[in-house]
Structures are given as C-alpha cells and as structure tokens.
C-alpha cells in the first residue's frame, strides 16, 4: 500500500510539473483523469492546476473547489497551494481590486510555512494581479521589498517568475532598461526549465515593452513569437491577447485594415471566453482607428465608454490612457479649451500612477491643446520637453513625433533652414509610420517650394500623397478612408497647384489616381461577403432605421448612427487578404489601352478641385491637356442649380425661361457645358466618340448627358461612361444577348410607400425584348428574405443582366441609409454590398439609384457603387426621381440596343437620343432632360 501511495503521489506532482512545460498535454491528461470514477483530493488539485494552466477555467474551478473541500486539514502547505491556485483563477476570471484583500490574507497564511518560498510565490502572483490592474507603482514597491528574498536557494522557476512580474511592473512605470534586464533574465530561466508557456508570456511582455518604446518591428516579432507558441499550446486567452496587441502594432504602423481585423478577432475571442473587460480594451483599440480616420465623434464615444468601464473595474492605468486620448480627440473636434482642462485634470492622476511614459504622452496631448488655443510658444516648449523625456525613455518614435510638430511650428514661423534640418533628422525614426511620415514629406515639399526647387517639391509631395493613399487603400470603409483624406486635403491642394504650375499633366493624373474612391478599389480586391457577421449588420441597420424614422431623441439617433458605422467598420475587415502592392497610374499605358479599345475616338476627362480652382484634366490618344477654371461664386451657383435636389426641376425643365421671356433656352446647362467642356474636348466630339468621365466633388451629382454643347445635348455628341476612378478606364465588352436575365419588380408596399402600378409594364418591356432566358421575381416573390436566400446559395451569380424596378432613395446618414424597397422590407446599402453578383449589367429603374453621398477623397456611397462592389461590371441608374411614363419610353430603345449587341454606355446613349429627339408636345416632358438626363452608366 505504501508503495502504491508514493506512486500515486508522484503522479499528481508530475502532472502539475508537466502543466508548466506543456499546458495542452497536461490539460488533456487532466481531462482523462476527470473521467475516473474516484479521485483523491490531490488528484483533483492536480487536475485543477493543469486545467488552470490550460485556461479551461470553469472545469478548473470545479476541480479546485473539490480539492479544497477534501484535502486533509493537516496538510497546510497543500491547502495553501490550492488556495493560491484559486486566487490565480479568480484573477484570470477578471476579478478586480477586491481580490487584493484575498492575496494579503493568503500571504499572511504563507508566512507560517518554513523556507519562505510559498510566501514569495504568493507575493509574485499578487504583483502579477497589481500589474493586471495597472497599479504598477504599487507592484514595483512590492518587488523592491521582495528582492532580498530571492536568493541562490530560491527555485529557478520562482526566480524566473519574480523577474517576470518585476519586468512588467518596470514597463508600467516607464523604467524600460530595468524591464528589459528583468525580462531577459526571466526568459533565459524559463527556457532553461523548458516552461514553454512562460517563455511565450515573457516574449509577449517583451512585445509590450517594445510597443511602449514604439520599436514596432521588434514588438511585432516578439508578439508573433508568443502568438505561435500560444496557438501550439492551445491557450485561447493568450492567443487573443496577442491578436489584440498585434492589432495595436498594425494601428501604430497605420495599417488600419489589419488593426481593425485583429481587434475584432480578439474581441470576438474575449467575449466567447467571458472576458468582457478585455473585450472593452479591444473596443478602445478600435476607437483609435476611428480617431486617426477622422471619425472623431465615434472615437470620443468609444474612449468615454472605455474610461468608464476601466474606472468601474479598477483599471486606473487604462482609464488614464482613455482620458488622454479624449484630450487628443477634443483638439481634433475644435475644442482645445475642453482638451486643456481635461489634460490638467489628468495630470494629477498620471503623477499618482508613476508612469513616466504616460506623463510624456499627456504632455504631448497638452501641447496640441495649447496650440489650438493659439498659445504657440507654450505648445512648442511643451513638445520640446516631451521630446527630450521620450528620448530619455528610449522611445525615439514618440520623440520624433513631437519634433515633427516643432518642425511645422518652425516652418510656420519662417525658420525654413531649422525646420529642414530637423525634418531630415527625424524622417528615419518615422519610417514605419505613414501617418507621421507623410507630414514630414509634405513639409519638405513646402520648404522646396519656398526655395524655388519645384521639381524637388513635386517629388516630396508625391511621396506624401502616396503614403496617404497607402493608408486609405487598406480600408474598406468609405468614412474612414475619407477621414484620412480630410487630414491631408491641404497636401493634395498644394500638390495639384504645383503640378499645374509645372504643366505636368501626368502628375495630375497620378494625383487623381491617389484620390478617387480608394475604398471601392479595396472592396473589389478583398472578400467583402461576411455571412458570419450578417446578423450583426442586419440588427444594427434595423436599429438605425427605427431610430431615424421614429420620434427618438437626437442623442438616440446619433447613438444608432454611431453603432451602425462601428458595425460596418468592424465587419468589413473581418477577413483581409495579404497586402497587394498597387502600381502607380501609368498615363502611357492608360492611353495605349484606351486607344486599343476605341481607336482615336475617345477622351478621358478627369476634373479635379482645389480650394479655389477647377482643373479639367484630359487625356486623348494624341496627348494630354489641362484647363483651369476659377472655382468662384458663379461656378458654385451653376453647380448648385444642376446638382442640388431642390433646384433640379427648375434646371432640367428650363422653368426659369417661363419667367424670363428673353432668357436663352437651357441657359444653366449651356453655361455649365461651356465651363466644363473645354474647346480641346468639344472639337473632338462625335456621336460615336467615347467620353470617359471620372467625376470629382459636386460633379458626381451632375447629369452630364444633359449638358448643352453647340446647341445640342452632350449625349447626342458622345457616348458617356462614368468611372469611379482611373483604374476603371478599360474596355467594357458588350453584354451577351443570350445571357440569363433576372427581373425584380415591386409594385405594392403596404403603408411603407405609394404603389408603383407601371412596374409590371416596365418589366414586360425587358421580358419581351431580351433574347436570352428571363426569370422574374414580382411583388410577393420579390422579398428581401428571398434575395438573401438566393444570395446564400450563390444563385444570383448566374445572371448576366439584372433589372430592379421599385422605390429607392439615397436616405440620410451620409449615404448609410440608401435603400431599395422590396415587398417585405428595405434592402440597405450594406445589404446590396453583400450580394454576390457576376452581372455584366444591372439596370436600377428606381428613384435616386445613382445618387450618392460624396465624402472628401471622392468616396461615394450610393446604390450604384454598392452594386459595383457586389460584383456588377456596370450599372445604369438615375440621379433623381424616375417618372414612370418617361421610363417606359426610355426602356424600349435601351433594351433594343442591348439586344442588338451594344454595350451599356452605347445603349443608354441611343435611348437618350431617342427621347431628346422627340418633338416638344404641350403637357409632355418626354423630350426634356428631366426625364432622361438623370440616367448614367457607371462602370468598373
């Protein structure tokens, strides 16, 4: 019996030792043991310890509870070991500051054991919990007290743990050299012992240390090392921690798409594990992406919620960080007084925490608030102080960011030489941070302009513009991409003006390529369909519609918009492809491709706006052109009359002429035609001439077909094709007349909208004219539920032509509520994006199907753009209200031309020419551009 007892004892001890070396293997053995009919209390302790190390907390809690209840009362040491395990378990379960009292009681009981190792082990775990709470100064005080107890007689494992927790406390206090030394010692000892999970934990902390120093390459390397080991050991909580911090690295490297994707992945894992505080931390990190993307209201709301959550859970350190970020957002929102007051309030808290790095970061934020208040001298002094303190802490990246602000202040003050020297010094320290580096090159460009080195300035501006575009190209969110562009809008203006001054038309095209619709470009590359998150998006969209259509308070509506925008920002970045380098626009190749497609009968028009000018950039087979128009009050008024919904009726029916007998016919559209279509372009026009247009700014809302040129409509003198960006300037092959067609029509909507009695006749034209097989979904068959079901089965991919006849509207919330009404529900913009289409052409015979909310950076949210993202090659839609009788008259020649083998732009041109050639009949509007002019073809 005695021999058997010793063997059993050795087994449970060996299982606990194995848990330190291989948590996954020991955990699996523990699961096998737990299936035994009878187990000793020591075996229960070993099972609980192994499952604790394997992060199976519920099962560990059960086993440890059983062990604690059944261990012999006389075995005081093992009771305390079990108690320590239960306290460690409570810490992993997220217990807050109240757990410290438990640790103090436990340490007091450990004092009764001989040797001191039990007390030292307990104190190390108490320090670890203080570190988790962000109470680093208290943790460091404890480690200082414990240092004399760590002697040669202390076990290697306990020495390693002591160095580990000491290193983390030193990181939190900003003592990075001590932290590095402690973590190196801990890592070496854990490797010697073969404790793989602890080796990974030390690597994780070294990653955090590198993050605090903003040594981003090292941080990424150490975190990926820890991530690899954790995955092999099947430790889901630790894996999620690595995902979260790798997301932080991606954010600091301005790789916002991957920052969002990793943050969402970590948040999902934390919630599945019941770690709500850690999930809140991921929300905080995602808020930083909103901040740098210019979504300031969203970022402020996230930071405020995070600060409250951290305070409630006793995480003073993280609450301080959330508060500091609120200072920066308040500055960006144009409220520097509030920002400064908040910074001053936080200063005392930072002092109490004893975090030198945090204090420096707060100084940096305070300087920005001072600058916003016009206290430039104080701001400069504060940035200089912060920079020197960052250097002392070994954080060269943060120091360089402060010096960048000083360089801009010197540049504004006219000290060009000093600014130039400083910018060249700090550029290397900001090499992996595009968000700061573009500002370095922008400033260098400005300096070169002042020195008269215009070609050098052009190159610097292009470097800066390329960096900004690179950040935007990694985002599938139009709002986030636009937010980044807004911050660099002055750079774009300066670069455009310089290119005009140099008469560098190729440079203008490359600048246009770095501006237009970069989120659409990204969405077309990545897999936008995320069925796993469809329910989340649908719920957020439903809440938004309800809030905006009800009598909800403004705060509730704002919260609904914020929640929906956040949901889209997160779910569009759940899966990401590897980064694909984007080749810059090559005007020579572009000219060659278009000439191969259309011979000499083509022109590409790319209008670009600066703050005070409209640049009409053109490319032809023979060369390139640029005409500059003043963007003055007169042009503003003309564009308002042609583009604003409240003035379109007057313009496109020429109603002003009824009031002024002497007024020339179609005066507004003629004036716009003369302004927007220079003579080098109008001289080339002919009925079969292909005019490819990449609109910008307000011109996205212009009915180009209805411009008057030489007493004729533009659609009579060219085949018009709207492009979202220059990369879409390629051949549009004709639609196969024998491809299957899907016709979707809704005529009844209950109380949601007025009926559309002519939808049936609308679809009958298509069904009668289209040569290929036709499938129709009408009324009760045309539901959102039916479309979602067909989409899930990828059934929509078989159709080469799709027509949707129903109500549609652009809606509010910056295009987020653009929708197509179906019989049972509304299909929101994001529902359209999630469709899986391979249609060559989608015809959207609905009001405002082509209308869009245009954000800075020419990010456009519209139903037609959403259909392109879903996979359609081209979309025919209207910018405004569609009139049924006029639509029937338009569709007949449109479908006849399509059936005859013409591509979509040519077919629409034929249909519009058919209507505008009709004689004027009293009471009829069919000949007016108000009926046919709003339709356009947008292609990708």
TrEMBL record:
Family annotation (Pfam families): CHAT
Record domain CHAT: where: 668-937
Coiled coil: none
SUPFAM superfamilies, sorted: TPR-like
PANTHER family per the UniProt record, alphabetical: RAPSYN-RELATED (PTHR10098), TETRATRICOPEPTIDE REPEAT PROTEIN 28 (PTHR10098:SF108)
Protein name (Swiss-Prot/TrEMBL): CHAT domain-containing protein
């Amino acid at each position: 019996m005695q021999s058997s007892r010793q063997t059993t004892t050795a087994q449970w001890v060996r299982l606990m030792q194995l848990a330190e070396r291989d948590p996954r293997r020991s955990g699996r053995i523990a699961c096998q043991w737990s299936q035994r009919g009878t187990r000793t209390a020591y075996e229960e302790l070993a099972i609980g310890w192994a499952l604790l190390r394997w992060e199976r907390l519920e099962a560990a809690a059960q086993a440890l509870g059983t062990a604690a209840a059944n261990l012999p009362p006389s075995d005081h040491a093992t009771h305390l070991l079990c108690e320590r395990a239960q306290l460690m378990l409570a810490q992993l379960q997220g217990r807050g500051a109240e757990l410290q009292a438990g640790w103090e009681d436990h340490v007091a009981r450990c004092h009764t054991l001989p040797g001191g190792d039990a007390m030292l082990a307990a104190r190390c775990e108490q320090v670890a919990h203080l570190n988790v709470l962000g109470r680093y100064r208290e943790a460091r005080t404890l480690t200082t007290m414990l240092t004399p107890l760590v002697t040669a007689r202390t076990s290697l494992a306990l020495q390693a743990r002591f160095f580990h927790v000491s290193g983390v406390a030193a990181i939190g206090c900003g003592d990075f050299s001590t932290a590095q030394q402690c973590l190196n010692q801990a890592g070496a000892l854990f490797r010697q012992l073969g404790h793989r999970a602890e080796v990974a934990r030390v690597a994780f902390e070294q990653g955090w240390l590198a993050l605090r120093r903003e040594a981003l390459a090292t941080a990424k390397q150490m975190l990926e090392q820890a991530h690899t080991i954790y995955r092999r050991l099947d430790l889901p909580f630790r894996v999620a921690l690595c995902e979260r911090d790798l997301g932080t690295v991606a954010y600091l490297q301005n790789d916002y798409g991957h920052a969002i994707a990793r943050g969402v992945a970590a948040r999902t894992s934390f919630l599945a594990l019941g770690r709500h505080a850690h999930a809140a931390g991921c929300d905080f990190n995602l808020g930083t992406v909103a901040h740098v993307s210019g979504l300031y209201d969203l970022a402020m709301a996230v930071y405020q919620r995070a600060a409250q959550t951290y305070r409630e859970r006793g995480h003073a350190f993280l609450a301080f960080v959330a508060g500091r970020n609120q200072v920066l957002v308040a500055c960006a929102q144009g409220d520097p007084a509030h920002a400064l007051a908040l910074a001053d309030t936080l200063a005392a808290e930072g002092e109490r925490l004893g975090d030198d790095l945090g204090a420096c970061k707060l100084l940096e934020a305070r300087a920005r608030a001072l600058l916003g208040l016009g206290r430039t001298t104080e701001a400069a002094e504060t940035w200089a102080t912060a920079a020197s303190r960052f250097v002392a802490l070994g954080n060269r990246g943060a120091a360089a960011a402060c010096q960048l602000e000083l360089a801009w202040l010197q540049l504004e003050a006219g000290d060009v030489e000093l600014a130039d020297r400083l910018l060249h010094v700090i550029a290397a320290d900001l090499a992996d941070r595009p968000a700061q580096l573009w500002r370095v090159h922008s400033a260098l460009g400005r300096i070169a302009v002042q020195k008269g080195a215009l070609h050098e300035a052009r190159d610097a501006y292009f470097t800066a513009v390329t960096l900004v575009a690179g950040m935007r190209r990694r985002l599938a969110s139009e709002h986030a991409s636009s937010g980044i562009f807004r911050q660099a809008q002055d750079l774009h203006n300066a670069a455009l003006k310089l290119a005009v001054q140099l008469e560098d038309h190729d440079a203008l095209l490359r600048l246009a390529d770095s501006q237009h619709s970069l989120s659409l470009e990204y969405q077309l590359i990545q897999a936008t369909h995320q069925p796993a998150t469809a329910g989340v998006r649908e719920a957020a969209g439903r809440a938004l519609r309800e809030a905006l259509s009800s009598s909800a308070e403004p705060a509730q509506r704002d919260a609904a918009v914020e929640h929906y925008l956040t949901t889209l920002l997160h779910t569009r970045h759940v899966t990401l492809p590897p980064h694909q380098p984007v080749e810059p626009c090559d005007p020579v190749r572009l000219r060659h491709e278009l000439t191969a497609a259309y011979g000499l009968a083509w022109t590409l028009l790319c209008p670009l706006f600066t703050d005070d000018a409209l640049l009409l950039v053109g490319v032809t087979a023979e060369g390139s052109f640029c005409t500059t128009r003043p963007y003055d009050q007169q042009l503003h008024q003309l564009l308002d009359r042609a583009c604003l919904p409240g003035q379109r009726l007057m313009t496109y029916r020429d109603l002003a002429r009824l009031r002024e007998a002497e007024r020339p016919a179609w005066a507004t559209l003629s004036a716009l035609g003369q302004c927007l279509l220079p003579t080098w372009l109008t001289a080339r026009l002919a009925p079969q001439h292909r005019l490819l247009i990449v609109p910008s700014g307000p011109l996205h809302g212009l009915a180009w077909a209805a411009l008057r040129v030489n007493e004729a409509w533009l659609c009579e003198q060219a085949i018009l094709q709207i492009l979202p960006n220059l990369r879409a300037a390629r051949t549009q092959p004709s639609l196969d007349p024998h491809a299957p067609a899907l016709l979707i029509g809704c005529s009844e909507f209950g109380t949601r909208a007025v009926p559309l009695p002519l939808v049936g006749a609308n679809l009958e034209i298509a069904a009668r004219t289209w040569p290929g097989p036709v499938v129709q979904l009408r009324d009760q068959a045309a539901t959102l539920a039916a479309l979602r079901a067909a989409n899930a089965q990828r059934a929509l991919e078989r159709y080469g032509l799709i027509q949707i006849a129903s109500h549609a509207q652009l809606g509010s919330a910056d295009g987020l509520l653009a929708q197509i009404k179906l019989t049972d529900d509304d299909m929101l913009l994001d529902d359209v994006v999630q469709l899986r289409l391979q249609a060559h052409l989608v015809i959207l015979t609905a009001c405002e199907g082509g209308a869009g909310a245009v954000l800075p950076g020419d990010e456009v949210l519209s139903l037609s753009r959403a259909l392109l993202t879903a996979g359609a090659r081209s979309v025919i839609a209207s910018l405004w209200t569609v009139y049924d009788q006029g639509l029937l008259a338009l569709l007949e020649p449109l479908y006849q031309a399509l059936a005859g083998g013409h591509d979509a732009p040519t077919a629409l041109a034929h249909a519009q020419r058919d209507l505008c050639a009709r004689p004027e009949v009293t009471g009829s509007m069919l000949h007016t551009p108000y009926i046919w002019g709003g339709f356009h073809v947008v292609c990708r």
